[in-house]
Amino acid sequence: MKTMRLPHDSHSLPPEEVVPFRDAESGASGVIVLHSTALGPAAGGCRFWHYTSDQDAVVDALRLAEGMALKNALADLPFGGGKAVLRSPERPHDRAALFRAFGRVVRELKGRYVTAEDVGTGVADMEVVAGETRHVAGLPPRDGRPGGDPSPWTALGVVQAMRVAVRHRLDAELSDVTVAVQGLGHVGFALCELLHGMGAKLIVAEPRSEVAARAADRFGAMVMSSKALLSARADVFAPCALGGVLDAEAVAQLRARVVCGAANNQLADADLAVRLAERDVLYAPDFLVNAGGIINVAGEHLGWNASEVRRRVMGVGQRMKTTLALAAREGMTPHEAARTIAMDRMAQARRVEAVAA
Ligand code: NAD
């Protein structure tokens, strides 16, 4: 296995290690990025996706791994941050063989990286990985313990952050607002279910028309195209599809006063957090909002019970409050404030490590 070690600097957040891999027999290729191990093993899921080049896969993994480091630190988990991307081969392939090869790469990292599912991967894939390494979570739950699909926990965390954001920016409760949910996958649909139960009105966009129709039927949701959703008459925009949805054009079109959703890396460019604040939109940082899933994954790996996982996921609301308070005090955007809290936590762990060494 070829390993690349890179210098570490707490301000510019370069990754600690980049591990490209290729297995000729199965056709598996991709990269694992260990962004930071300051707080513990680098934890973050494995994405299985079509990338046009190795370079695109590395760039995506670097970005996602940094997000995981911030997310895990902010959620107060004893984990650093990492991410794997496995390239979906163009030619016909044996999916299980790909994930076995990936599992062997994870095993060689000897616990410095813990994987789980992400976009394009599921519980069945992680069971294959578990045949090669024990450094994997997202396996079926056993004996009422945390495990399995983390999406309902992610949705629960999003609701906690959204409640705080809506009170802060709109002086309203979730029962008073209209939420535009983009993407009705694992998290988006569960989020609609929770919001509907709390009395919120819903507008949804989802390319799978039968799923959108189900949301209309079950939640009385209005269905729109994804593009139209940005300028819909909604109080909250909840991105729950893929990342990069908030580019300059989308920010200019956005009508909602609060953005709070599950998608990773919602901002196409970090500077857009400032642009959103200038437009008086409260952007709830994605890596704070969507921590519920990784909290469940951590609980599974560390042997917590379900009520401990729940307590920690409910804590997303308190973290949102703390972040908004720091942002107000220091004149920062919430995005910058959340990043500052996470980076301070990592820097502190590194200082403790340095003193102990
Ligand atoms: P998913 O693949 O189950 O759902 C994504 C949904 O978005 C699909 O239904 C898809 O059809 C839809 N979609 C795709 N393009 C769209 C578009 N242009 N407009 C509207 N809908 C579109 O994924 P998921 O597990 O629900 O995760 C959603 C997002 O949340 C991802 O960005 C993921 O990285 C992030 N996230 C998920 C979790 C989790 O626990 N699953 C945790 C943290 C972050």
Structural description of this entry:
This protein is of the alpha/beta class and about 350 residues long. It folds into 2 domains: about 15-70 and about 80-130, Rossmann fold; about 150-290 and about 320-340, NAD(P)-binding Rossmann-like Domain (Rossmann fold). It has 13 helices and 13 strands. It has helices at about 55-75, 95-110, 125-130, 150-170, 185-195, 210-220, 225-230, 250-255, 270-280, 285-290, 290-300, 305-330, 335-355; strands spanning about 5, 15-25, 30-35, 40-45, 45-50, 80-85, 115, 180, 200-205, 220-225, 235-240, 260, 280-285. The strands form 2 sheets. Strands 1, 2, 3, 4, 5, 6 and 7 form a 7-stranded mixed β-sheet that branches. It has a 6-stranded parallel β-sheet with strand order 10-9-8-11-12-13, with helices on both faces. Helix 1 packs across helix 13. The chain is globular and about 55 Å long. About 50% of the residues are buried. Nicotinamide-adenine-dinucleotide binds next to helix 4 and helix 5.
Write down the domain tally.
2
Q: Got a strand count?
A: 13
* Share of residues in helices: 40-55%
Structural class: alpha/beta
Oligomer: single chain
Question: Sheet bearing the most strands, described?
Answer: 7 strands, mixed
Second-tier CATH architecture of the largest domain:
3-Layer(aba) Sandwich
What value does the Rg take, in angstroms? 20 Å
Report the portion of residues in β strands.
15-25%
CATH top level of the largest domain? Alpha Beta
Write out the distinct hetero groups bound to the structure: nicotinamide-adenine-dinucleotide
Helix and strand pattern? EEEEEHEHEHHEHEHEHEHEHEHHHH
CATH fold title of the largest domain: Rossmann fold
- Shape designation: globular
- List the total number of helices: 13
